[in-house]
Amino acid sequence: MSTPILSASILAANFAHLEADIHEAEQAGVDWIHVDVMDGHFVPNISMGPLVVEACRKITALPLDVHLMIEDPDQYLEDFAAAGANRISVHIEDNPNIHRTIQKIRSLNCLPGIVLNPGTPAWSLHEVIRMVDLVLVMTVNPGYGGQAFLSEMIEKITEIQRMIASLSSPTLIQVDGGITPRTLPITYTAGARVFVAGNSIFKQGDGITTAVRALKGSIH
Ligand code: DX5
Ligand code: ZN
């Protein structure tokens, strides 16, 4: 079985001591740092932008996994790449020129990912799957941390896993939303290999290190 990759979503971290939270997550064995960018239009919430990516870049060498939930992402790709993003994932919804967006991400030396909202079917990936390094299957509707995992997404993960296997492609499936030690193994069995976790890392009573261990230990 291939090794699971844990991407810590700093949306749930304490912004007053982000550096300490990231360092603790890193020491506990988190693999990537997930940065959720929200503009109040594509999703109702507003979160953070390139300045936060730049601040993270200065304090960690872990890959910065930037998830754009914004209208017109093309306009901001250079800014995120310059800030130090390693991966940039964009939604397939509401993007009439998705190939251009993906090509632009690659031209900026970042690894492109494509994101599907819960209401977007797996087949919509058909025209783009060969172009991306990662497919992010949202397991909640984007916009907020701390929402409940949508178990209906398991079938979609399985379908995308089959699609990727039929292409003999190394494309990774990432899941994001409501990932806990209970839901992580279910998505792993369906084919997910990258797990975004916010609340289940940064908002657990026993602290970040214990929470990361519980997530990592949930697959046997
Ligand atoms: C939701 C974001 C997620 C969010 C996940 O729109 O894309 O990355 O931070 O939070 P949890 O893990 O708390 O569900
Ligand atoms: Zn996210």
UniProtKB/TrEMBL annotation:
Sample GO molecular function, one term: metal ion binding
Q: Which residues bind substrate?
A: 9, 67, 143-146, 176-178
Q: In which pathway does it act?
A: Carbohydrate degradation
Provide the catalytic activity annotation. D-ribulose 5-phosphate = D-xylulose 5-phosphate
Keyword check for Glycoprotein: no
User: Keywords on this record?
Assistant: Carbohydrate metabolism, Cobalt, Isomerase, Manganese, Metal-binding, Zinc
- Cofactor note (record): Binds 1 divalent metal cation per subunit.
* Co-factor requirement: a divalent metal cation; Co(2+); Mn(2+); Zn(2+)
Task: Report which superkingdom the organism of origin falls in.
Answer: Bacteria
Function in brief: Catalyzes the reversible epimerization of D-ribulose 5-phosphate to D-xylulose 5-phosphate.
Q: What is this protein's name?
A: Ribulose-phosphate 3-epimerase
Species this chain originates from: Longilinea arvoryzae
Name the encoding gene, please: rpe
